[in-house]
Structure formats: C-alpha cells, structure tokens
Fold each of these.
Amino acid sequence: MQSIQDLSWEEYSALPISRRAECLSRTDGMPLHTIFAQQFDRASLDRLCDSATKIRAIAKSRAGMQFLQGLLFHKRAMIYFTQPSSRTFLSFLSACQILGLRTGEVRDASVSSEFKGESREDSIRTFSSYFDLIVMRTREKGLAERMAWALSQSKRPVPIINAGSGKDQHPTQALLDVYTLQRSFERRGGLRNRTVVYVGDLARGRTVRSLSHLLTHYEGIRHVFVSPSALRIGDDVLADLKDAGAQFEVSDDLAAWLPEADAVYMTRIQDEWDESAGESAKIDTSRFKIGPEQMRMMRPDAILMHPLPRRDEIATEVDSDPRAMYWRQVRNGMWIRTALIASTFDCLSRIDHWFRDNL
C-alpha cells in the first residue's frame, strides 16, 4: 500500500474512496485520521464498540478513572468547530477529559485570525504546531480530508478527526449510531437481519450517508429511505449500497414501513443548507413525524433513534417510551469517541489489559 506521504494532493484525491481510506489508516486497519465512514470495516467497528464498553466500565471506579486520565495526560487536543454545535462539541470535550487530554477550542472564526483574512488551511496548520490532535467541524466539504493530507506531509503529522464535513460525512455520529444499535440488539439476536428505516431530510443529512455505509458491514440489513420526494436519498448513497450487495427501498409512506422497522432513524429538516430563503418550508413534511399514534404502529421491540437536535419530527410525549433511544445515543457518543481518540493514539491494548486485570 502506497503511503499518503508519498502522494501529491492531485494523486491522492484522484484515488477511489476505498484507496483513500487505506491511505488514511494505519497498518492495523484503525484510522490514523478519521475522515469518512469508508475507513471502517467490521473488525474495526467491533474493536471500537468493544473498547467503548470497556472504557465505560473502567470509568465507574475512581481507580479506573485515574487510569484513563493518565493515558493521554501528556497530549493536547484542539477542538475547532466553525459550524455551530453543542452536542458534538461537548461529546468530544468530555471524551478528551476522560482520557486526560488538555484542550483548546475555537468555535467562532470571528475570534481567530480568520477574521483578519487568514485561510482555514493556515489556521489548521498553526493549530498543528500547538496540539497533538485536531477535531474539526466545518460547513466546507472536503476540508477535513484536505487538511489530513496536508498534515501528513509535514514533519509533525498531527491526526485529524472529522466531526462533520459539509453535507458530506459525519463518521463519528455513525459510529455512535452503530454502537447504539449493537447495544440495543445484543440480547435479541444481534445487529443482523434488521430493517432500518431512515426518515426525513435524506438528501442533505450527512448522518444517514455515513450510517448507511457502516451498516453494510452487518449481515442482512435492509435499508428503507422514507422522505418527501424533494428530500430523497442521493443516488450516490444507493449506488454504494448496491455495490455492497445491500437490500434497500425508497418510499414516501412512513406509515407503511413503521410495522416493519427494527429501528427508525429520524432526522430533522436541514434548512441551514437552503439555497434560497424559505426553500425547505415549502416542502410538506407533515407525514414524516413520530408521535404516540406512530409509536403504536411500531413493534414493541423496535427502537427509535435521532442524531439530534430535533424540532417537531418527534413529539416530546414519545421521550418516556422505552423504545426512544436518542438520549442514550448522546451518552453512547461520548464513549465511542473516547474509544476512537484512544485508538488514534494506540492506547486500546493498555485499556484491554487494565480491564482484564482489574474487572
């Protein structure tokens, strides 16, 4: 496998995504930079989910937390979010704190040198001089990947974790979604032969794009994409599923699919991507919401998920239903991101040993 350090940007960016994924990963198959879902196979997903479960068990004791906080006490992380976020930001901040990383943050470009005209590329190169990890969230498609390549060429190749990139990918949200699905079904036959129904703004929702790819690594998953026609899932996502041999359906009838679902994955309308004011408001989304009536259509053992934030696509009355998993998703996100950061710094074996010797 050719190293990313040996490739120009033109050579690297011309590669198919499967080859770029190899370039961004270590020889053990775990990511060096975490940029897109295609970097993960079944083995790496199982490794991260298993490590997240071990970390959350270790963290329950004082001695365990002291061990975890000593793992990366000598490292520093920059959390660089130029696109608004609270959940993902705090999730990564908490993950860093669990592992002892000291953090810096920029959450508004107007308080950085970008306000003076500095490019984002130069800002990120500057951060790499001070920090050992950069976690970034941006509206700009491809920026995280471009900077992963650029920093790999430097004498100090600081890893980058993509915490949301344009309308393209959100790989760590997909990781926590897979972790939530695994934990939800681990005592009920596992994450196989399941029907996952994705609902809402599927044209612009990067979480569905990343999650649907990760689920191709699990046997017998049927993907059902339910949305208004204007927000239909992209053909590139369907082509990816077809290439993987996955089953999929496209529909605009949520009520017809609710009784079939093992998991319903709701999403909000992504109107921040509107090309003209009020564009999304013209779309009738009234049939793509979940309330008590829709929950009665779902099976007793089905689950309801949402990457959050929500608006009115899930009624608050549903929150008390034991099948509602979105608050568990939030907490699961902190643990899987902790595992990912630990993996980035090659600490998973030390976690395995502590877990085996002490629990």
Amino acid sequence: MQPVALVLDSISGLGLAVLAASTLSVLRFARRLAEPCKPAPAMSVLRPLCGAEPGLEAALASTLGQMRPGQQAVFGVQSPTDPAIAVVRRLQARFAEIDTTLVIDPTPHGSNRKIANLINMLPHARHDILVFCDSDLHVPADYLARLAEALAAPDVGLVTTICLGLPSVPGLVARLGATGISHCFSPAAVMARGLGRQDCLGTTMALRRATLDAAGGLHALRNHLADDNVLGQLVCGLGLRVGLARTVPLTGVAEARLADLWRHEMRWARTIRALEPCAYAGTFVLYPLVWAMLAVAVAPGWASLGFFALAWGARALAAGLVSRVLAGARAPAVPVALLPARDLMSWLEVGWAFVGSRVVWRGRVLHADAGVPEVPAVSG
C-alpha cells in the first residue's frame, strides 16, 4: 500500500475509534432509558409553528396524547393565514380535554423568528415549568415526565434531549438527512456529554420561568441564530447545569430534494462553526468512510478495498446499535447503502461551513454568529 493511502486509512481508523467511543457512550446512556419515573407535573408546552410541514399533525399529537388536565399546550403562528392553524384547530377538537391555546401574533422581535414567535406566546403560558419544543418533534410517551425528572435534579436549570431522525417524506434524501441526525450528530452529542460538555440542543429546551427571567428572558436570544447555545450559556452563568433527559424523541426530516437538505444542514454546520471554529474543524476526522474512499482512489487494490469494506461494516453495525437501543421499534431502518454518501456529504459540509456565514432558514437569509449573549447572566 502506498504511504499516502496508509495515512488516509490511518485517519479513517481514528474516525472508527471515535465511532466506537460514541457508540459505547450511547449504550451507557441507553441503560437508564427504561428506569421508572413519576408522572409529569403541571407545565406549559410551547410549540412555535410555521407552515403545515409534513407530519406536523402527528408530531403535535404525540405531545397532546400524553398530557393530562392541569397541563397546557401553547401553539403560536405569526400569520393569520398560516396553514398550521387548521392543523391546530383539528387537534383542539380531537383533544378537547387538554388545555390548548393558539396564539396568532405577527409582532416582530429581532432577527430570529422562532424566538419572536415564542416571545409572543410566552404571556399565554400559565405554568412555572416551560417546555420549548420544535414543531417537527415526534415525542415518546415518557417525554414530559422525563423532562420534569431531569429538571428536578440538583443544580439543573435547563433540560434538553438528543433525538433521532425520522423521514417525513418518502425518498432517499429524507433518509440521508435522518441518518445524519441519528447516526452522526446524536452519538457525538452523547459522547460530548460524557466528556463534560453541557450543550443545549434546541429541539427541546425545558426550564422554570424564574430561571428564564434570571437569565435575561427570551429577548436575550432574539438576535442569535444559535438561540439554544446562548440560553445554555446564560443558564450556566447562573451557576446551574444543563441536564440531558432520559428520553429520545424523533425529529422529522421533510426535505425531498438534495439542495434543500444541503441548505438545511449548512445552517447547522455554519452555526456550529461560528460558535467553535477550532473544534468544528477537528470533526473532519470523524467520517471514516470518506478517508477510506480516498485511500481506494489513491491506491486501488485489495488492501484499500478491504479496509473500506471493514469501515463500512463498522459504520452499519454502530448505526444499527444506536437505533435499536435508543428507539427500538420506533426507529426507522438504517439506510446502510447510504452511509458512504452520508459521510461524504457531512465531510463536505465541514469544509464549506468555513466559506462564509450566510444561511437560509425558512426562506430568510441570516448570518451565523458567535453566540455571545447580549446581556450578562445575573448571579443568585
């Protein structure tokens, strides 16, 4: 084997070592998923909406179906013609016993429209525990109880969750996006948690109203693309921790075209790069199939092909384990044939993330920022 190919396969081997470590982290995390927990207390679940995206009704129903009297769901849109309104109206009729509120308010607040929507919704929330939940999240039956459990732990001020990807539309593109969330992002997030990081992952953010007020409120997030990261920083600035709940929701992937998926994932990539450029550059090594493919291109032969096949098999095995232990029957099948394409796309995104800061979010052009809070955290 040529020296260059040997170096490339060595980098691939490093990526496989990290893959093994992240998979072991997931297995350790999964051991506690089946432990019993108490029913969820009173809380307000706020879900900002924008359009009737595929799977929206099922996603919202997954939350309403586990709520009980004394809990509240708040839905918010910024346009009176938003098609999500009809979805909410159907659910209000279907779950008539649940306290639901629909807020229609176009008032702008900064550049982050999701946060602007939440700012308009917050005055309608009636309970002390607040759960901010993305519109495309399909949550398991223990979701609210697990959030409350994690929030009750000592010194925890904010709770988040990992998630797995769920294709919301048919086709290879949605499956490609879903496996990126399930088998790249979430295992890495669990491993980072084991190494001491306290990242807030924005699909779910749960905290008490007093904590939010002490951290500067939602207005402190209104001009940040990485609102979840900023909220995590502010809560940690209060001397509190960011907890990880023992529950695994599924987040919908609705992109049917590769260009749309690329734009969506570039928003994530440039957001993370803006926050931690050096650490993000290091993620180049985390895609073992790319480096093994480069080795095959440099030195075609049985040795390179054999190592590539070994790396592909290891990726498929790890992906299957992650899906099975985190979601069981709820998890979509692992698209084994797409794993090389998934690694290649992620690898290219890492590089392209350093070429500018422009992102597109629901049709609006924004720019990734460093996530420095606008207001200082208040101690005590």
Amino acid sequence: MSIFLYTAQDLYTWLTSKQDMLLLDVRNSEDFKRFQVESPYDFDILNISYFDFMEIEDECVKQIPRDKPVRVVCASEGSAKFVAEILEKNGFDDIGYLEGGIKSWGNLLVPSLLNPGEDFELYQFNRPGKASCSYGVASGGEMMLFDPSRNIAFYQEFAKEKGCTLIRTCETHLQADYIAGSRSLMEATGIEVVANSHDFSGANFTYTPLEDKQLLKFSYDGPEVKVLFTPGHTPGSTSYLIDNRYLITGDTIFIKSVGRPDLGGQVDAWSDILFTTLQAIRKMDHSIQLLPGHYIDWSEANENLAIITSLGEAIDYNKAIHDIDNEADFLTFIKSNMREQPKEYATIRKINANLEQVDDDKADELDLGKNECAASAYAAEKG
C-alpha cells in the first residue's frame, strides 16, 4: 500500500472503531504536551519530532512497530508527509498522513442525534479536539444553532443535508476558549445572532439582545426554546431549555464540574453570582437532560459517545460542590481550584466581540487546544 492522505473524520472513525494502529505525532514535545489527539478508547500513540527524523533517522525508525498501520500527524501536513516518505523508504507499507495537520483534528465536528423518533431533532456537534460541544435544533425545515464554532461551512452543509434553513444562532456567553462562529455565520448567511447584553454590550457587531425567560420560536410548530439567564461564569451566561427537557448550559454547569468564575478577573464578585445561579439550577427538575458546552475527557460520554446526562446525575457527581451552602465556602473552593488561564483567552474574547481581527493562520493557532473553563478538583488535576 502506498502513502496516502487521510482526513480528521477518518481518524475519528478509526479511533472509535478501535482499529489497531499507531498514531505517530511528529510535532515537537512542547506542542504535543499542550494538545494531542485523544480517543474514548485506548490506542497507541508515539511522539517523535520531525527534526529527530531529519537528524537521527535510523534511531527514530527503530522505534516504530512494523506490525500495524502507521498514521502520521504534524502541525500542518508537510512534516507528516516527509516522515511518511522516510517510513516508506524503510520498508513500511501502510502509512497515512493527516490532511491539514493537527488543526484539522482541532476543527472536526461530529454530529449526534440525541432524541431519535421525536417531532423535532436535537443534535450535538462534538468537537473532540477541543472537548467542546455546540448544538442544533431542527423543526419544520428550520434550524437554530447554539454556540457554533468557527467551522461555519460544516453547519451550513449539515443544515442543507437535513433540508433546513438556518434561522438563528444563540450564544451562551462571550467565549474565551475558542473563536465562535455566530458572527461569521451572520455575515455569510444573514442569520440572526441572539446573545445576552451583559456579555455583548461592547461587541462590534449586530445582535439581538435576549431577555430572561423569553421564548425563541420557529416559524411553524416546534419545541419551546426558553432563555434562562444563568450568570456566574460570566455576567451574561445564558442557558437554553429545549422542550422543558434539555438544558444547553454553555459553561455554567458541566457533567463533572462547574464553570470557572475567575476568567474575567473578578473572582470574588462572580463567585457569589455563580453560587446563586447553582442554587437555582439545583431546584430544577433533576430529570432534565444536561447538555454542557465542554467536557473534561471522554469518560463523560455515554455508550453512544454523546456528552449528556441528567441534571440529577451531574449534581450527584459534583455533590461536594453543590452541597456548599454559603458564598464564603464556595469562594474558598473556587480559589483552591483555580488555575492560570491561557494567555490566548484575552485575545479570543476580543475576537469574539469583533474588537480585534486576525488572519486564518493566527485564528488556527489561537483556537487550538483543549478548554480550561471548568472549576473542580478533578478539572484542576487534569489541567
């Protein structure tokens, strides 16, 4: 078999079908440690720098097993192809290299239908390279999006495949950990952007301000989409209750953690606000299905690899957090589990408010890597 090019979707399919292979990442060790391919299942991965292959080829080749396919990953494709050619020269015969490099993995979106057999369709778009989730609700030939990423071509094509027109994109908050796609979708298609002015009042683009408890509607009969202000992670954090059964929470509450209230530099004030919000969420129907904006790792996925659980199960898992009954102890917990936020976050906020512009290469660089938005002892250990 000759050297071939494979896609991020191919890689996801191989990993989730447990194909026996070696993933060879030829980026430098620093970039590899910062961000690497992850899977819900164990797989073989090896990091040997492209520069090592250039300087000590024989020693590098000896580290590669010859009894399984080799799939090479690099920063932008060229180095992976170079290493694949070295391996072919040394007698390896099943070698692929990732199209577009690691950024293509970082931008991959994997759709899952969460409610088969119902009158409307609720989709989760998992972004495994970012451990992030966006959502889509389709009804009557229309689709609303929630927290889309900058891979807007995916959402446009997905809606087209489902026979839907995109009518609205809903932001849960001013994102700091990834570049949002709502503004780009608006510019490309004219779609309405709705957002909470407590986060977006200074933004330099047109959006429709939300009101707490308002209903967002489809043109025809469809599920009720209720806006719920849930501040704390940011002042304008907003959740969306779909059909009184599914709660899209953004970064307010996750399956194995809650949102960090320290990213805005006002941890004392925002911690008190988040505490009040969590007390209100705890009083909601515990059978509601929680749909978070992020996850820590694949252990949060269900048997269908969807990131979803009941609100009650999330509260039970995070019992140590949700049982805190006063603001002072909650603040102590938050401060004891704080981590330094990535330096890129300040720039990403400005980009998402259209207060700063960058080219595509810089956007890819800023947008790469897992999120750091969770506050829990488990998240702190992982981070």
